[in-house]
């Protein structure tokens, strides 16, 4: 952003020389540079781009690239069409129309590269002035039912009928059983209850012993049980696993589809969410697994539980072996999704339970010996609680991110990873542990407030006058009119006498917004580009919660909405105000 008028600089320094150069320009060079009339005849650059793609569509049908968007040849693609072409997010904005009822949803009539029809598909993009909301789910075998219980408690506390809990988060990352949950909730679009019922099916197929039946029978005999367990361990080492994977692998293919790939359009793209699944590489280092391995596409069913070689990238195992709590990874990925590296507004981590231990007085004769101490140290470093503490300790002092962690603490021995019969109990325990707590209530109030956004009005751009920047914008809602939950949500706000506060302004939520999309016009003045602008929602007296992105600065809003793009935006968005661009107050030159 320049603190001067670019037009004035051009007029003072370059206009005279450019006019002179244009006047003496030799005619013989005109054949090399098309005159302005030709460019005017071509029309807008977007129309010309469409014509070129249509002209070469037969050739482009046979070309595929997973490293470069074939539409713009400038960015990495994110969305895969049924025809096999992938495009970037910017090309979604450029080539596809927005739904009238939802400005962040784009309808895909056909692939604009090859013209292959794509009926019924849509892509939902994150609003420009929002900050991402992150959900991280731990792994833990059958204890993976605990996060489902937490999600159920969150959904009940938010209390918007017909609005699934997963829609309250933009980025979801899961490990092990948590990976199954995020894929089921987002890629398949299941409800929390459906996800729980399928987790039980996965658990039954996951924990099928590979060892012979006679060894398991010997384990029940009192005199030979120790020897039998040792033989079981030796057998598992020889066959490289304790449980058979055939049944689970087939179930995963049947559930997620044997051909569904990481970049395919799904319920997640229709909701506008990003899904991540962690894997543990047989070798070391953190690595982002690409959407293909150079030979074939990576399928969703391939990324869970069983050690598997993926092309020439190496052997990958269950992500819980190295990072059982993927919260740090989720935050890192959320920041990387934002071009300006904006931190997420909310981070929620759901645990799978741990045992409360007295670390100061360990019991047992061997507990103080070196092997036991080494084991405890290694286990503690990879523990979910340590990972969470590590994340919190590395946050900036001025960070506005809100962190929430829900977990179950067992007074006795925690359930084993393969105790399938304990799944329902784990879910109920987690749900009961979270219900009614202050943390849950605070989180859900934040999530309800995050359903509202603020954006500057492009028809009335900010201007500097009388020592301050005068700004006009609108508060809108992610939930749109005529969608499930919208009327119920607005009705709840009216019953609670909810209101928005912008500085000294109080805007009461009324039932006039029941039939139409909520939109409140706001005007305020700030002394500088870096002044914080808080916009809050109050549902109960004395409790104010920030809307998405709040508190923000005028500079951040202008950059996010590209109001300072004097030479046009990358998505060819036309300004509703002709020639209007945001020009901040110029600093007085000093001599």
TrEMBL record:
Residues 135-331 form the PNPLA domain. GO terms for biological process: arachidonate metabolic process; glycerolipid metabolic process; lipid catabolic process. GO terms for molecular function: calcium-independent phospholipase A2 activity; zinc ion binding. InterPro entries: Acyl_Trfase/lysoPLipase, PNPLA_dom, Znf_RING/FYVE/PHD, Znf_RING_CS. A motif (GXGXXG) lies at residues 139-144. Gene3D superfamilies: Cytosolic phospholipase A2 catalytic domain, Zinc/RING finger domain, C3HC4 (zinc finger). It comes from the Eukaryota. A motif (GXSXG) lies at residues 174-178. A motif (DGA/G) lies at residues 318-320. GO terms for cellular component: membrane. The active site is at residues 176, 318. This is PNPLA domain-containing protein. It holds the Pfam family Patatin. Keywords: Hydrolase, Lipid degradation, Lipid metabolism, Metal-binding, Zinc, Zinc-finger.
